[in-house]
Design goal:
This protein is of the alpha/beta class and about 270 residues long. It has 12 helices and 7 strands. The chain has helices at about 10-20, 25-35, 40-45, 50-70, 80-85, 85-90, 115-120, 155-160, 185-190, 205-230, 245, 250-260; strands spanning about 95-105, 120, 125-135, 140-145, 150, 170-175, 190-195. Strands 1, 2, 3, 4, 5, 6 and 7 form a 7-stranded mixed beta sheet that branches. Helix 2 (about 25-35) packs across helix 4 (about 50-70), helix 3 crosses helix 4 and helix 4 (about 50-70) crosses helix 12. The chain starts with 10 loop residues before the first helix and ends in an 8-residue tail after the last helix.
Length: about 270
């Protein structure tokens, strides 16, 4: 509830302290800010330090904590994923190795006009930072990209982050219709894209296509559930507008959230 770590994994605080030499209280401060988005005034009262020092500790230590936790976001071998496939995937979708989607985090309006334009999201009607997130069929986060301006399309993000470099030939990716222009790029790399059938203006889907759309939607629900868990970290919540000063560590905030999600109970029982 307070720092995103369960009782069973609380030993991580001691490990973090040992490997990074960051004071235990300072680790807790960073994780609490990450989880609850407490104001620095609250942290000042909670930890008995000045407001400016609380801010300084958070911005300085978060990248170190993020680099320690990043190995928990593991890019698994496709054969290992296949051996642990949920039942719903085993019949027709046994080649699926990952499910991808993008999520947007609202930020304060930047002061520079160029940054305003680059972060403007038509979908959210505000300034956002956008991330590509990928999970295995059983709900383990196996990739999160660096942040892109809200203006970037889903396909642009996939092309410009290193997500495709970590995929093996013969991999099958499950995505929504927004990624349809990715098909050609993936085909060249020997990777298959599985997505709902496209709908042309004025045309109706056939019964088979409707059935396929429903099945894919029911399988894609796992990435939606992962994103819902990410949003439980209040800094990444819908409409929690991130302060401009904190935007520079936002990549670290989402890495920590995804790493800690992987230590939680499995999404699929």
């Amino acid at each position: 509830m307070y720092i995103g770590i369960s009782k069973e994994c609380y030993f991580l605080i001691e490990l973090l302290h040992r490997h990074t030499n960051i004071n235990r209280e300072h680790i807790l401060l960073c994780l609490k800010k990450n989880r609850l988005n407490s104001t620095f005034s609250e942290l000042e009262d909670n930890f008995g330090i000045s407001l400016s020092y609380a801010s300084k500790l958070f911005l300085r230590n978060l990248p170190i904590i993020s680099s320690f936790l990043k190995p928990f976001i593991v890019n698994l071998d496709k054969n290992l994923i296949k051996r642990n496939l949920p039942i719903a995937f085993r019949h027709n979708y046994h080649n699926v190795s990952c499910i991808i989607d993008c999520l947007e985090i609202d930020i304060q309006k930047p002061s520079k006009a160029l940054h305003q334009a680059l972060t403007w999201s038509e979908y959210k009607k505000g300034n956002t930072v956008k991330y590509l997130i990928s999970c295995t069929p059983n709900g383990l986060v196996n990739y999160v990209s660096q942040g892109f301006g809200g203006r970037a399309s889903d396909v642009t993000i996939v092309e410009n982050c290193n997500f495709l470099d970590g995929l093996q030939q013969g991999t099958c990716i499950l995505a929504d219709r927004g990624f349809k222009h990715l098909e050609q790029i993936l085909h060249e790399k020997g990777i298959k894209l599985l997505r709902p059938p496209s709908v042309n203006a004025g045309a109706k889907l056939s019964k088979t296509e409707v059935r396929q759309t429903k099945i894919i939607a029911s399988l894609r629900i796992h990435i939606e559930r992962v994103i819902r868990r990410v949003r439980e970290f209040h800094m990444l919540k819908q409409h929690s507008v991130i302060n401009t000063n904190i935007c520079r560590v936002l990549d670290h905030v989402i890495i920590i959230a995804c790493a800690l999600i992987n230590l939680q109970d499995s999404l699929i029982k």
